[in-house]
Amino acid sequence: MKLAHLAKLVGMSQYYFCHLFKRSMGVTPYQYVLQQRIERSKQLLKQNELSIAEIALMCGFKNQSHLTTFFRKLTGITPKVFRSP
């Protein structure tokens, strides 16, 4: 769902919605969604049943490289390292 649509649903401007969201949650809506996608990828990586590329697509990333870039930024390690025993 797009940010503009969420703001419209609650009857406020996109700017004000983002401002209140950040004040309430401590991060922007984009950062929050990204964090949630990374958390979901961590859960899937622990299961070891899917490839990292499949997990990337399931979590809304364009490809494995896209997941790896953001995973490393938020966790300090790559998905492969996270998955290894």
| Fold-level CATH name | Arc Repressor Mutant, subunit A
Largest sheet: none
Strand content: under 5%
What CATH architecture do you see? Orthogonal Bundle
Rg, rounded, reads 15 Å
- Determine the mean pLDDT: 95
- Unreliable runs: none
Give the number of DSSP strands: 0
Number of helices: 6
The H-and-E topology, N to C, reads as HHHHHH
Overall number of domains: 1
> Under the CATH scheme, which class?
Mainly Alpha
Structural class call reads mainly alpha
Considering DSSP H and I runs of 4 or more, what fraction of the residues is helical? over 70%
CATH superfamily: Homeodomain-like
In whole angstroms, the N-to-C terminal distance is 36 Å
Give the overall shape. Answer: elongated
List its salient traits.
mainly alpha; elongated; 6 helices; 73% helix
Can you give a write-up of this model?
There is one protein chain. By secondary structure, this protein is mainly α. It has a single domain, classed as Orthogonal Bundle (Arc Repressor Mutant, subunit A). It is built from 6 helices and no strands. The protein has helices at 3-9, 14-25, 29-47, 52-58, 64-75, 79-83. The longest helix is centred in the middle third of the chain and has 19 residues, at 29-47. It starts with a helix and ends with a helix. 12% of the residues are buried. The model has no long low-confidence stretch (mean pLDDT 95).
Helices and strands, with pairings:
Elements: H1 3-9, H2 14-25, H3 29-47, H4 52-58, H5 64-75, H6 79-83
Summarize the structure.
With 85 residues, this protein is mostly helical. It has a single domain, classed as Arc Repressor Mutant, subunit A (Orthogonal Bundle).
